[in-house]
């Protein structure tokens, strides 16, 4: 990420500077020479990266859905699958990443398809655990669109399992949550078939 890709919001400069100061001290405690050429700007780069990776705290996913809510009599499944996401595990602050598959059956309202992906992004750009992330996406869509049902399936790789700990490189964690019409095993099976998972 270049320094130009993420702009610090007004009022965040002092926060970025404070975060950078803490990272500088961490680097010193790790035994690094923070004055050497390659590391002089690293604390601020990391601070900006952390603000970017946690920008979901400053965004309202419900507002995103309500801002593109349209009356439509369609009552069949709507699926947005293979939504790439990146998040930080709240236990070790290491990345976990993968794909989210989201489906809902409208009652009276639909939303812009890109808004579903935005909801995934907003919740993932916070310190997270995959289980909570799955539930938050489901609950947000249910509360703001009031559909007949919502289902969310997330498949992710966790660097806290791959880089450290048990160091299982090929492991994938799958979580799911659902409401309403998706309590029916037949409806869930249709969703899983449509996203190409069994």
TrEMBL record:
<comment type="similarity">
    <text>Belongs to the GTP cyclohydrolase I family.</text>
</comment>
<dbReference type="InterPro" id="IPR043133">
    <property type="entry name" value="GTP-CH-I_C/QueF"/>
</dbReference>
<comment type="pathway">
    <text>Cofactor biosynthesis; 7,8-dihydroneopterin triphosphate biosynthesis; 7,8-dihydroneopterin triphosphate from GTP: step 1/1.</text>
</comment>
<keyword id="KW-0862">Zinc</keyword>
<feature type="binding site">
    <location>
        <position position="92"/>
    </location>
    <ligand>
        <name>Zn(2+)</name>
    </ligand>
</feature>
<dbReference type="GO" id="GO:0008270">
    <property type="term" value="F:zinc ion binding"/>
</dbReference>
<comment type="subunit">
    <text>Homopolymer.</text>
</comment>
<dbReference type="GO" id="GO:0005737">
    <property type="term" value="C:cytoplasm"/>
</dbReference>
<keyword id="KW-0342">GTP-binding</keyword>
<dbReference type="GO" id="GO:0005525">
    <property type="term" value="F:GTP binding"/>
</dbReference>
<keyword id="KW-0479">Metal-binding</keyword>
<dbReference type="GO" id="GO:0006730">
    <property type="term" value="P:one-carbon metabolic process"/>
</dbReference>
<dbReference type="InterPro" id="IPR018234">
    <property type="entry name" value="GTP_CycHdrlase_I_CS"/>
</dbReference>
<dbReference type="InterPro" id="IPR020602">
    <property type="entry name" value="GTP_CycHdrlase_I_dom"/>
</dbReference>
<dbReference type="Pfam" id="PF01227">
    <property type="entry name" value="GTP_cyclohydroI"/>
</dbReference>
<protein>
    <recommendedName>
        <fullName>GTP cyclohydrolase 1</fullName>
        <ecNumber>3.5.4.16</ecNumber>
    </recommendedName>
</protein>
<feature type="binding site">
    <location>
        <position position="160"/>
    </location>
    <ligand>
        <name>Zn(2+)</name>
    </ligand>
</feature>
<keyword id="KW-0378">Hydrolase</keyword>
<keyword id="KW-0554">One-carbon metabolism</keyword>
<dbReference type="InterPro" id="IPR001474">
    <property type="entry name" value="GTP_CycHdrlase_I"/>
</dbReference>
<feature type="binding site">
    <location>
        <position position="89"/>
    </location>
    <ligand>
        <name>Zn(2+)</name>
    </ligand>
</feature>
<dbReference type="GO" id="GO:0003934">
    <property type="term" value="F:GTP cyclohydrolase I activity"/>
</dbReference>
<keyword id="KW-0547">Nucleotide-binding</keyword>
<dbReference type="GO" id="GO:0046654">
    <property type="term" value="P:tetrahydrofolate biosynthetic process"/>
</dbReference>
<dbReference type="InterPro" id="IPR043134">
    <property type="entry name" value="GTP-CH-I_N"/>
</dbReference>
<feature type="domain" description="GTP cyclohydrolase I">
    <location>
        <begin position="20"/>
        <end position="195"/>
    </location>
</feature>
<dbReference type="GO" id="GO:0006729">
    <property type="term" value="P:tetrahydrobiopterin biosynthetic process"/>
</dbReference>
